[in-house]
Amino acid sequence: MFILSNFLIAAAQVLGFLLWAYQWILIAQVVVSWINADPYNPIVRFLYNVTEPVLERVRRVLPVTISGFDLSPIVVLLAILFINRFLVQSLYDLAYALR
User: Fold this and answer.
1) Backbone phi, then psi, for 70, in 5-degree steps?
2) C-beta of residue 58 within 8 angstroms of C-beta of residue 11
3) How many domains does the chain have?
4) In which domain, by residue range, is 47 found?
């Protein structure tokens, strides 16, 4: 069972890192949207292409706009926090229980 335990620990670490990286990409996209950067800049295009599909789904399901401010990044950040605290921690707990 230690092989499955090690696999679950590795999966939890990779998932945790991906969530952490996406969180910072999302924060960078929000900051770039505030400063109105050049949309043809490759970094700006990368940030937009990576975050916009997720943000668009949230906007379709929950129209979270208050006084012209788009709050969908906050909803996505809360979802990342929930997934990190629930799913990643559950994977760790399950892996340590299998040892």
Assistant:
1) -85, 120
2) no
3) 1
4) 2-98
Tell me the pLDDT tens digit for each residue of 27-72: 999 999 889 888 899 999 999 999 999 999 999 988 877 777 888 9
CA-based max dimension of the chain: 54
Whole-number pLDDT of residue 52: 95
Rounded to whole angstroms, how far apart are CA atoms 50 and 83? Answer: 18
- % of the chain residues with pLDDT over 70: 100
Region at 66 (left for phi over 0; alpha for psi -120 to 50; beta for the rest): beta
- Show Cβ contacts of residue 58 under 8 Å, excluding neighbours closer than 6 positions: 64, 72, 75, 76
